[in-house]
Design brief:
4-stranded mixed beta sheet; 18 strands; globular
Length: 535
Amino acid sequence: MQYQFDVLVIGSGAAGLSLALHLADTAKVAVLSKGQLHEGSTWFAQGGIAAVLDDQDSIDAHVADTLAAGGGLCHPDSVRFTVERSKAAIEWLIQQGVDFTKNGGADDYHLTKEGGHSHRRIIHSADATGKAVLSSLIERVKGHSNITLLERFIALDLITQPDPNSRKLRCTGAYVYNPGDDHVHAFQAKSVVLATGGASKVYLYTSNPDGASGDGIAMAWRAGCRVANMEFNQFHPTCLFHPKAKSFLITEALRGEGAHLKLPNGERFMHRFDEREELAPRDIVARAIDHEMKRLGSDCLYLDISHKPPEFIAEHFPTVKSRCLEFGIDITREPIPVVPAAHYTCGGIVVNAQGQTDLLNLYAIGETSFTGLHGANRMASNSLLECLVYARSAALDIAQKLAAIPAPQPSPAWDESRVTDSDEDVVISHNWDELRRFMWDYVGIVRTQKRLERATHRIKLLQKEIAEYYSNYKVRGDLIELRNLALVAELIIRSAMERKESRGLHYSLDHPKLAPVARDTILVPTNFAAQDIFV
């Protein structure tokens, strides 16, 4: 079966839904959600959105703060482009019905301040901004007759065809697996947008939901698009360590209120790494925990606030207290087992200011893209802003070009004639676990050349197994994600091996100093989509 639309949006977070709404008045839009709509990273975003909304603040100040946080690798033009459009992005969200926290007056929104920001500029909805934003966008999308919303549809690969107006390839859709009928279908469109989020699931411990498997990055690379700065993965220092907790973050506010980080024997250790101890910046704390875990061969360390009065803990940290109690941990009496967790993918698919990739009519927006905004370290609350700004920018570009794009030719049907059902699903789960574990051990918070070489050897063996499995058995969601994760892992390893310095989120024991010249790490596929083709 083939589906026909003007625009195909793969991904249903803040970026994908915003773009769909911007286009829906003039185009037929399909939005694919790999799971349910509330399963993506946007829904779980606790913080807020950085924007210049206060008279005491300025665009120049927001730009300067972002450049300072980015370790010398932010693209100044991209930063200014994003910040200049921040106020309009927030005003549009308010028009969509997002209920941001107010001080009292009708237009008097409460602004908070986060790490790296010199002013109060974080607009938020209590401590569940992502949920508030996505709820409003979902309601709007479901109410629009020009938007077709398809949940539990999993994109496999992009479809490309020669462009009749140039010597280039163009993107004309995607092959999509529907678990409902257990078949792969061709979705055709004049323009395709990747809004698939990041790739933090490549690591054993992550704050991200299960779907963060780098699908868009992998699909774009296979289709000939460049990727950049994949070595920069942001880690949150304290994620609850429990087999059933998955991605629950333990807020940094605990350390702000006097919680101590401890080794398994109860000894404090942060004084050996930074004079600020537990109040050191996030990357320093994450590296210190990682160092001690590797030194001791320990699965986790501990965060202890039990020396504070129970009433104080209950008043200041009711969410953390109740969540930990669900797993049998009483934080008023015992320490919390914690590990650092992969949190945000700063690199991604190379795009321009309109979100256009190297492949004609293929766009990428949000965490899956590389715009140059984040540099070597993302500043807090700039991520949702990037989603909104580039969703609008890409939508404007698509709207201007759509009428002139020739309709795609019919795509070949997905060939399932030579595949069988697998009775060895244990292979997928084993490879999934092995991949995430060696990425954590060898390509994590602190890296060495020897660890990266070991990771290179293992990823090659794993990819060979996955390719053989993928060729012989029917596709399933876990297999699709495993294939994408393995490719993204390879791109992260290659990028990390190319950077012979320590900068931002990339820390190498073999190259601890900063290089005198800051350069992006740009990987170019052999089938580079921007090269001329001859048909």
